Amino acid sequence: QKEVEQNSGPLSVPEGAIASLNCTYSDRGSQSFFWYRQYSGKSPELIMSIYSNGDKEDGRFTAQLNKASQYVSLLIRDSQPSDSATYLCAVRGSSNTGKLIFGQGTTLQVKP
Amino acid sequence: DAGITQSPRYKITETGRQVTLMCHQTWSHSYMFWYRQDLGHGLRLIYYSAAADITDKGEVPDGYVVSRSKTENFPLTLESATRSQTSVYFCASSPDRGGRGYTFGSGTRLTVV
Fold first, then answer.
1. Which of A85, B1, B47, B94 is the most exposed place for a label (fewest CB within 10 A)?
2. d(CA A102, CA A2)
3. Which residues contact B7 (CB under 8 A, 6 or more apart)?
4. Where are the beta strands (DSSP E) in chain B?
5. What's the angle, vertex CA A76, arms to CA A74 and CA A79, rounded to 5?
6. What is the pLDDT of residues B89-103, one digit of tens each?
């Protein structure tokens, strides 16, 4: 079992729809969770962080965390073609070494 | 320029040659990291550093060497490049133990022929 798992996609949604991206992790002691966006040929960019159970909203983005189910999700409301990118889930495990473990990423395509 | 910069952006080298990828950050972040990104494998940690003169192996350290004599610099050296080291390399930094996530450099695309 991989430490952080994501469906590689591609996930295709029409413009204006809600895109839902999911991530599961194996280290039950993990404390910090992040979503990065990576455009083709570019470096990952941090867009959301979440540390406690529940929802965290920032503009059109909502991160959701359920530690009991070891599940993190990212919702993108009113999806735009400019949201088309690969979304990477990252988890800081319980070892407290500072290392983030990344999932392989989900490619999102928003069609006009 | 403020931020985290990597050089070169692109590099082509021959098998067996030594090559060094540079990473420089201006924030005085304690933690620095080197990842490689390959199709089918995602981002994999090569080495990381918690402070100057403190480095440790990540998931895929074989064939790589790092040093950190100054807080702001974290070079990655491929001692004898192999074709399997063809990849995109990202450097990242963090002010703490990753609690606020990392900031990535723009990457180096390395091709070993």
1. B1
2. 10
3. B21, B22, B24, B108
4. 4-7, 10-13, 19-25, 31-38, 42-51, 54-57, 64-66, 76-78, 87-94, 103-104, 108-112
5. 150
6. 999 999 887 778 899
Is B105 at the interface with chain A, CB within 8 A?
Answer: yes
Query: How does strand A106-111 pair with strand A71-76?
Result: unpaired
- Of the candidates A44, A101, A104, the beta carbon closest to that of B104 is on A44
Nearest Cα to Cα of residue A32 among A65, A69, A59, A58 = A65
Q: How far is A4 from chain B (nearest CA, A)?
A: 11
Per-residue pLDDT, B97: 76
Up-side HSE of residue B26: CA atoms within 13 Å toward CB? Answer: 6
CB distance B107–A45 less than 8 Å? no
Only one residue has tokens 């004898």, namely B80
Q: Which helix (H) or strand (E) holds B27?
A: none
A108 touching B, CB under 8 A? no
Instruction: List the structure tokens of A67.
Output: 């530690």
